[in-house]
Amino acid sequence: PITYASLIQNGGFDTPDIGGRFLTYTTAPSELIWTITGSGGFGVDLINSEWQGVSGVVNPDGIDQSVDIDYASTLSQSFGTIAGQEYTLRFAYSHNFNASQSTGYVDVIGSTNLLSATLTHDIPNTQSNMEWLYYENVFVADSSTTTLTFTGEFSNTVLGFAVDDVSVNPVPVPAAIWLFASGLLGLLGVARRKKA
What we know:
Elements: E1 22-25, E2 35-37, E3 44-47, E4 66-69, E5 74-80, E6 86-95, E7 102-109, E8 113-121, E9 133-140, E10 145-152, E11 161-170, H1 175-195
Antiparallel strand pairs: 1-3, 2-5, 3-4, 4-11, 5-10, 6-9, 6-11, 7-8, 7-10
């Protein structure tokens, strides 16, 4: 099978490498690569030792970082796409273990809204077992730039919607289609030769 590098940069949130339990950002440092909007002192928590992420990428401290999106805060990233191409969005989500649940909104926007989802995580979890779930869906790009945005639900307060291991990859065209297309072109070539 063909594999592609994700179009999302820093989808495991492992840079910047922070110390301590977590660090709250209302605007993102450049090395995070993502854009953050927060209000009233709330924003996005970059989680270090508060719990283990699920991306499998660890910082020099041996910790797999993730994010916790507070209420009414957003985390977004724009990336290049090809109009008409299918892409797969995949990420892990959970809720802050200090709450019983949290809700997050996911939007993929090009020239139009390409994908929207509301996700609630309410599986009982603990600091040592976050009970991460994976969300996966396909969208068709309609422009050369597409933006992925996560938004924390207002009712989450500061015990937000946890996200990790974010990726967007082009859906590969099956090899059978290439074989069919090349065979069809061959038949057209033979038909043209017979006509001449």
